[in-house]
Amino acid sequence: MQNESVVATDTILKVENLRKLFPAERRLFGSVRYFVHAVDDISFEIIRGDSLALVGESGCGKTTTGKILVGLYEPTSGKVFVEQEDVTPLLYEGESSARKYIESTYLEKFLSMSEGDLKRIEGVEGLYAQRFADLGKNRSKFIEEFLKDRRERVGQLRRRVQMIFQDPYESLNPRMTIYDIVAEPMNIHDVGTIKEREERVADILASVGLTPPETFMFRFPHELSGGQRQRVAIARALILNPSFVVADEPTSMLDVSIRTGIMKLMMKLAQDYNMSYLYITHDLAVARYMSNNIAVMYLGKIVETGATEEVLHHPLHPYTKALLTAVPIPDPEEKRGEPNIKGSVPKPINPPKRCRFYNRCPYAVEHCEKSDHPPLKEVSPGHWVACYVVSGNAG
């Protein structure tokens, strides 16, 4: 169901209560005994033209989040909106799962409400509620309209949302030429004539700094350096003019000497193409350079989020402080103001309901152990933290 009547908004992506569980151990007859809580009830949004850095240690769930947004993983629960359209049903591989999502997310709520109550719902959900009322509260028609042209809309979503992968050596097919790699999305979506595709590939290769493009188009990946390969990967992601790109640590496997060039290129392309990034990284210096806003993840949870400069200059969550403490400084005599965290990251298999950081936190109190994981609370304008001690709710 597309929202043609939606009031214009600057929000390019909105994620609500997203979860992804992976089965970790099964019982004798196949039922799942334990789950890995890779992403556990996270919410965030990205404004058009801005970029959000998702930071944390390996295994915290940041790459899984990115893969859900581009349809490589199905969400266990939660909602994903792209440009004010609920695209969650398009992220499920099978139509039956999409139907179950529509039933549980919208119909169970709407069927219990009067027409007057439906009209009072605001936002995107209000538009769906209004459409449900217009259809005479007909369950079947509502589902059919929601799933109308589903295959075509999945293709449209993939054109709007692209991903740049971490490893430029593994993400490019060694049997294909650079032209074939970059043009492949246009071929899949049947965009343009052969001549138009050739012109578009040449233009995008020039845009990412592979010039003259004619000297690169018919080479193979093994003939390029690591930096050149990542530029090819960027060109492939941008060939369809997406409005949103997931960048999964695109510079982490590159030589330090060329990382800055790739980051500057990505920032310039974001301006030129009016794109937004979800930039996944473990490097706070990179996050500061590449993003307007930042979200810090720990064991599947967002523990602190806000404007990048605000969070990095005034960190509040103990884990964020620990990440900043781990950043090398030039002066070996300079004293760190924060204590180091203890132990290692626990396994994300059936984690306890209490604060995920409790066992490693130098400031933990009894309330942190006996209460559920703290919700994000706004402690200053736009700055949110999930910590009972910081928010003053530690009892």
Please tally the β strands and state the result: 12
The count of helical stretches stands at: 16
**Radius of gyration, in angstroms, nearest whole number:** 23 Å
At the first level of CATH, the class of the domain at 158-282 is Alpha Beta
- Structural class category: alpha/beta
Strand order of the largest sheet: 6-7-8-3-9-10-12-11
Give the N-to-C terminal Cα separation: 46 Å
Q: Spell out the CATH superfamily of the domain at 158-282.
A: P-loop containing nucleotide triphosphate hydrolases
**What is the name of the CATH topology of the domain at 158-282?**
Rossmann fold
Overall shape: it is: globular
Q: Could you name the ranges where pLDDT drops below 50 across 5 or more consecutive residues?
A: 3-8
- Beta strand %: 15-25%
Q: How would you spell out the order of helices and strands?
A: EEEHEEHHHHHHEHHHEHEHEEHHHEEH
Per CATH, which architecture of the domain at 158-282?
3-Layer(aba) Sandwich
Structure description:
The protein is α/β, with parallel strands linked by helices and 395 residues long. The protein contains 16 helices and twelve strands. Among the domains are: 92-148, no CATH class; 158-282, Rossmann fold (3-Layer(aba) Sandwich), CATH 3.40.50. An eight-stranded mixed sheet has the order 6-7-8-3-9-10-12-11, sandwiched between helices. A four-stranded antiparallel sheet has the order 2-1-4-5. Mean pLDDT is 90; it is low at 3-8. The N and C termini lie far apart (46 Å).
